[in-house]
Design brief:
Strand order of the largest sheet: 1-2-6-3-7-14
Order of helices and strands: HHEEEEEHEHEEEHEEHEHEHEEH
Length: about 375
């Protein structure tokens, strides 16, 4: 019974991986492919398009148009392969020793492929399944909110949401939130021997990044020992930085991006308040000295955490399908689960594969995990038929 679903899932995975949906690219070709696939089974889908028209979320209802449905959600975008040492073509599925290699096999086109393969079986359920595929999760969970808002406003109220991030098919009821900030410093160029005639944007940026490094250390030193997360504290890292023109020129521009990941009981705004106040003070000082200079701090994204309360119904339902009776876990990565929970849906994370394989060269999902995902989809279809 499992084999036909597994075979169709593998074929779908091949197709999904072939689309280079790195977050900087459009995902519309993949979305069109999914629409055509679902249409074969009489399932219509709805796009929620971004402002530029270059990307789209997609959701589709399988089964009756009633309340109490199950949301199966995954993101279509993947992280870049630039500079990574791959042993095979990243945008093709290559099986080696029971491992399915390819960008997105684990995170998280594997889950999407399994859900799509199960669509024909889910049509006969007494409750609906709502497929939800998003864009731009990897750059701050930017795409899903518009889709979640439309689902909440237009569909009969779903009972729960399952986000298929890789958890080794274990039930996860909590994740950290993430906020991403961009900092731009504009200086005043001059000869580097005449520092009194200008201001180096690099030197200002270094001072601000030093403050962030100290803040990251304080978060680590003041970690709550009872936190279930690993690491237990909020984490802060500068992920990108650039600046300057030459060694002997006071830098005109410097730029860096940092992310802050907080457990549900930690307020990112409070953590960053002193940093933003200092940046504002430096901005005023620079502008007084040289017109056109300054410091700009912009929040690019702010995805909420997934709290462990309020997910009991979703947790019980997923445990029934997986047979997982271990204590529910939490994960330190950010996901769209917190956004679904914030919209009022009881939400858990459960999907095949390990997050340790995500974002790596030669990313993979094991065939064993993929098979377990197929079994999960079969049990979901059986459960909804029997209700």
């Amino acid at each position: 019974m499992t084999n036909p679903l597994l075979r169709s899932s593998l074929a779908i995975l091949d197709s999904l991986i072939s689309f280079d949906t790195t977050s900087r690219n459009s995902n519309l070709d993949l979305i069109a492919w999914v629409e055509d696939y679902l249409a074969q089974y009489g399932i219509s889908a709805t796009r929620v398009i971004n402002a530029a028209g270059s990307k789209a979320n997609l959701y589709a209802t399988i089964g009756p148009d009633i309340e109490g449905g199950i949301i199966l959600s995954g993101h279509s975008d993947v992280v870049p392969v630039d500079g990574q040492d791959w042993s095979s073509e990243p945008f093709a599925v290559t099986e080696r020793e029971g491992l399915l290699h390819g960008r997105g096999t684990c995170d998280m086109k594997g889950f999407i492929a399994l859900a799509l393969a199960a669509a024909p079986l889910l049509k006969d359920g007494k409750r609906p399944v709502h497929l939800a595929i998003s864009y731009d999760e990897e750059v701050g969970c930017l795409g899903a909110p518009a889709m979640i808002e439309e689902i909440a406003a237009t569909l009969p109220k779903p009972a729960l949401a399952i986000i298929g991030e890789p958890t080794m098919m274990k039930v996860v009821t909590g994740h950290k939130g993430i906020c991403v900030h961009e900092v731009e410093v504009l200086g005043h160029e001059a000869h580097s021997s005449l520092t009194h005639l200008g201001v180096s944007a690099n030197m200002v940026a270094i001072e601000l990044m030093h403050d962030l490094a100290n803040l990251a250390r304080e978060l680590w030193e003041n970690a709550n020992p009872e936190s279930p997360f690993t690491p237990p504290h909020a984490t802060l890292t500068v992920g990108k930085m650039e600046g300057g023109t030459a060694a002997n020129i006071l830098a005109r521009r410097a730029h860096f991006v940092f992310d802050l990941r907080c457990p549900p009981d930690v307020d990112p705004d409070e953590i960053l308040k002193p940093f933003k106040e200092k940046a504002a003070a430096i901005d005023a000082q620079l502008k007084d000295a040289f017109p056109g200079t300054g410091v700009r701090v912009e929040q690019l994204s702010n995805a909420p955490p997934l709290g462990q309360s309020g997910s009991a119904e979703a947790e019980a339902f997923v445990r029934k399908l997986t047979g997982d009776n271990r204590p529910a876990g939490v994960v330190s990565y950010a996901a769209e689960a917190g956004q679904f929970q914030q919209a009022g849906f009881p939400t858990v994370i459960c999907g095949p594969g390990s997050i340790e394989q995500a974002h790596q060269p030669n990313e993979y999902i094991s065939l064993d995990q993929f098979t377990r995902g197929a079994v999960f989809m079969l049990k979901l279809a059986e459960e909804l038929k029997q209700e």
